[in-house]
Write a structure and sequence with these properties.
single chain; 199 residues; alpha+beta; 36% helix; Glutaredoxin; 4-stranded mixed sheet
């Protein structure tokens, strides 16, 4: 059954509105301090080509970890993510895309399909993980940890939710889907993290 353009638009706006909730919740959670020890370096993804993608390989860098999808209203954010990577990569920023089919079935392709689409359409050169689950009990361990540290309200509510990891591996903050990669708030947070201490 086809979905009307109006229905799609309403559902997308609803998802974006729901994603506004984590901002206040993240602030409160950070003020209370982390509820679990450890840092992001202990987690690993599988890369889209099947090779290991351990976050420890990026120790001392700043990570922007984003759950992505190829058929989403926010898919054009790939362009902004690539621009961030090119602008700040030499200073220590690594963007990691984590394709997921969790929201609206908007990432149905294979990992090879996704790589081809991202590279061919948006010139993506930053690391891409294999397609992963990012919410619920079956979520990838990084996402379960992020939910524990920042609180359930910070979990992805839609595609292109963004987690910022500091140079010391600490989960710094989250940005909801509707916040564009080149939004001044994102850029300012990245610059502050790049100025921070590394482990």
């Amino acid at each position: 059954m086809s979905i009307s353009r109006r229905t799609f638009a309403v559902s997308t706006v609803a998802a974006a509105t729901a994603a506004l909730v984590p901002v206040a919740a993240v602030t409160a959670a950070r003020a209370a301090g982390p509820v679990e020890t450890g840092n992001a370096w202990r987690f690993a993804f599988t890369a889209s080509d099947g090779s290991p993608l351990p976050l420890d390989a990026f120790r001392g860098k700043v990570l922007l970890i984003v759950n992505t999808a190829s058929r989403c209203g926010y898919t054009s954010q790939y362009r902004g993510l690539q621009a961030l990577y090119e602008a700040h990569g030499s200073a220590g920023l690594v963007v990691i895309g984590v394709p997921s089919n969790d929201f609206g079935g908007q990432e149905p392709g294979t990992d090879a399909d996704i790589r081809g689409f991202c590279g061919g359409t948006f010139g993506v050169t930053f690391p891409l993980a294999a397609k992963s689950v990012v919410r619920g009990a079956g979520a990838h361990p990084f996402y379960r940890w992020a939910s524990t540290v920042l609180g359930p309200a910070s979990e992805p509510r839609w595609n292109f939710h963004k987690y910022l990891v500091s140079r010391d591996g600490r989960l710094d903050r989250a940005f909801p889907s509707h916040v564009e990669p080149e939004d001044p708030r994102v850029v300012a947070a990245i610059r502050a993290a790049l100025d921070g201490p590394a482990t």
